[in-house]
Design brief:
The protein is an alpha/beta fold. About 45% of the residues lie in helices and about 15% in strands. The strands form four sheets. The protein has a seven-stranded mixed β-sheet with strand order 2-10-9-8-7-3-4, with helices on both faces. It is globular, with a radius of gyration of 21 Å. The structure holds 4'-deoxy-4'-aminopyridoxal-5'-phosphate (PMP). Pfam families: Aminotran_1_2 (PF00155).
Amino acid sequence: ASIFAAVEMAPRDPILGLNEAFAADTRAEKVNLGVGVYYDDNGKIPLLAAVRAAEKARLEAQPPRGYQPIEGLAAYNGAVQNLLFGKDSALIANGQVITVEALGGTGALKVGADYLKRLLPGATVYISDPSWENHRALFESAGFPVETYPYYDAATRGVNFAGLKARLESLAPGSVVVLHACCHNPTGADLSDAQWNEVVDACRSRGLVPFLDMAYQGFADGIAADAVAVRAFSTSGLQFFVSSSFSKSFSLYGERVGALSIVTAGKDESARVLSQVKRVVRTNYSNPPTHGGAVVAAVLNSPELRQQWEDELAGMRERIRAMRTGLVEQLKAAGVAQDFSFVIKQRGMFSYTGLTAAQVEKLKSDFGIYAVSTGRICLAALNSKNIGYVAKAIAAVVK
Ligand code: PMP
């Protein structure tokens, strides 16, 4: 018999399943709000002009395709550190930050999780309730038990901060806490600056190990403003992990460009930790691919391209904001009595709309509008052509 004869079918990824159903839908007016991708006003994934310029220069230079160092391109890792910690960061100057290029934010989380398992084999990992669905799977596959801390409060459509804080203050020392640095996926509800300081205090007093996940830097208020959590931990004296991604902010999803950064107590520790993280990388994929990191580094390290990128990023951020405001206005205009103004306060690409699974189902069956059954929609999939249709459809299902 085949060695695969008894293999069971793995459960389908719920969001990929949604995409397949959307693709098979023949209605011309269909809209996919289930995705986690930024589309422009024409419904296309943009190729940023700054990226195009850097790619053109790179192609013309015809660089040889040797192996990268295990930790990736130094110019890339340095640029990542400046974005996350600020270019005048004392941690960087002191040699307290190590960064390895990774295969997207997912790859950064995976390398970080595998390294943490070697460092703290008995730890439990805590993720927000709810969280990006891959967080649990990633840390479980690294061998950790994964539990949740309270996060979303459906009644206020904000963060249950008292619950979150009480839970952190009750965790065993050495527990790993995965925190969304900004633009919480899936809820769109973020902590305030003051609340971040309280989270830092709780992590310090309980001896917790913070792991910040930064997948949307620049999508809420701006590059530096969105790094508030990283900056709050930076001045705390704590050691912590940061995974980061350029999938959205550079619109480079398929190039797999991310990074894992770790803050240590000092330069000597950094050298030892880096040597261990490199072992994780070496035994996994040896070294990262060249193209994406080279392009991002070229943009971030050129003053002109960097400015162009910041302008393009601001354009994406402002378009999402306009879609939030527009949706709220059009729902009101469509006669919806319920107050949807919370959509304007939520940050990043997503909104927990409060739509029930039955309402989401009706959006699909009656209107060809696809959303996640939890009521999560992607605002970046709305545009000037489909927003009116979506608002009328939501109005019809909530009435
Ligand atoms: N973390 C969060 C919170 C995300 O939403 C995502 C994906 N959108 C990632 C990590 C993974 O990013 P990447 O696509 O770069 O692997």
